[in-house]
Structures are given as C-alpha cells and as structure tokens.
Amino acid sequence: MRFIFLSLLLATTGVAAVHAASLTLVTEHAPPASMQGPEGVTGRETDKVREMMARTGTAYTVALLPWKRAFLMARQQPATCVYSTSRTEEREKLFKWIGPTDEADWVLWGRADHEFPLKTLEDARHLRIGTYIGDARDEYLRSRGFHVEPVSNDLANPQKLLLKRIDLWAVGMRNGSPGPGQYDWADKVVPLLVFNRVKVYLACNLSVPDELVAQLNAALAEMRRDGTVARLERKYEHWTLPK
User: Structure pTM?
Assistant: First the structure.
C-alpha cells in the first residue's frame, strides 16, 4: 500500500517512474537540516530529499556549498535543485517548487543591552539590519525599503552587532535549530522579534521537467501520509551540536 498513491499518479499522467533523470542537489551547512556527516551530506531535510529521490527512482548527487553559490547554481544550471529554500513572492517564478519540507521563523536579534523598543517590524525602519548576501531575508527587507547591510559570511553579523556597527541581525530559525548557544557571544545577543514565518522547499531549475516535479511532490505527500516525514523529524528531535 505504501506506494499506491504515487503509482496512481504516474499511471494517470502516462509517465513512467523517472529512472534516467539525474539531478544535482545543492544545499548549505544548516544543522540539523543539512550538514556534513561521516558518509556524506546528511540532516533532517536531506533525509527527506533523499527519500523522495529513492521513491521516484531519480538518480542524484548532493553537495554542501556556501548558500550564495548553491542558490545561483540552481538558478543557472540545468537539472539542479537547492534546499532548503524559502518560497517568497520575489522568488516564485525563478524555480519549480517541491515541498514544503519545513518551516522557518525569521527573527530579528539584537544586543542584550539594546535600548530601543521593537514591537513590530516597522519599529526597525530606522535601524541598521545585518543580513546575508543572497538570503531571502535580505531580499525581503531590501524590497520593503529597510536599511540592510549584507555580508558574505553570516557569522560576521553578531560580531558587527556587538561592535555596534549594526543594530539588528536578521536570522532564520528552522525547527530544531540549535541557535547561537555554542558561541562565546551567545549571552550577549537575544531574539527580539519574529517578523515572518515562511515555508521552505526544494527549489529546482526551470529546466527540470514538470512530470518529475509532480512525481517528487507526490512522493513527499505520500511520505506525510504514511508517517515517513514524522519519523525523519523525530530522528533529529534531540539533536545537538557535537562538542
């Protein structure tokens, strides 16, 4: 019974399971969603993506890259997909979307000794916000006229925050994210405001066939129904950063 729904979809569309297609999958280091393990790229969202590929018979490779490079590869290189990608209005027509595989909160962090009120995003209109080049939060805030100061390495932002070179840091917090607890500045920066919640996806280059996108979405839907998604999420429920 496990694959009945997917088989019915393939039969009704007249498309056989995709065995010849091959995808290049790229992602960033974002534990526990995606990270390097002893035997290759692993993590909660990686496991979901691998299961989707297995169920559809899709050959693939997966690589861990800096986010900007991974994102640009998926935009420019045929048969390439990037995860976990926030699906925003600005990006809607850039990719074909498979998911959602997870959700994320967008959070403004500030110094623990900050002296300004922050009850809504509009309260940050006059403040300097540290962002990450190529990141959806940078695009979102920039397009709405906020004062953003992007960097190529997101971990430069807390240092800029402590040096008072920026007032806020825009952070994406996914389910199970360990937060900044492992860093020596962890007690000096604090979350101040959740300003958006987004769903994240496997975002594929526009060259990827619609039939394959439909099959992968059907596989993910079946994984939700048969409990596979819940099982994979429980696997990382108590994950912590290695000491």
Answer: 0.81
Residue 97 neighbours by CB under 8 Å, 6+ apart: 87, 201, 202, 203, 204, 213
How far apart (Å, rounded) are the C-alpha atoms in residues 15 and 17? 7
Encode pLDDT of 150-197 as tens digits.
999 888 999 999 999 999 999 998 776 666 655 778 889 999 999 999
Q: Tell whether domain 4-102+200-235 is in CATH 3.30.420.40.
A: no
Q: What is the pLDDT at residue 48?
A: 98
Using a 10 angstrom Cβ sphere, with 0-12 exposed, 13-18 middle and 19 or more buried, the burial of residue 89 is: exposed
C-alpha dist (Å) from residue 171 to 49, 220, 229: 24, 27, 25
Ranges of each domain in the chain: 4-102+200-235, 104-198
Report d(CA 96, CA 183) in Å as an integer.
37
Q: Per CATH, which fold does 104-198 belong to?
A: D-Maltodextrin-Binding Protein; domain 2 (3.40.190)
Asked if the domains at 4-102+200-235 and 104-198 fall in one CATH topology, the answer is yes
- d(Cα 116, Cα 94) in Å, to the nearest integer? 37
Nearest to 104, CA basis, from 126, 79, 86: 86
What is the distance between the alpha carbons of residues 232 and 69, in angstroms, rounded to a whole number? 27
Q: Provide the total of helices (H) and of strands (E) in the chain, helices listed first.
A: 7, 10
Q: Where are the alpha helices (DSSP H) in 57-172?
A: 67-76, 136-143, 156-162
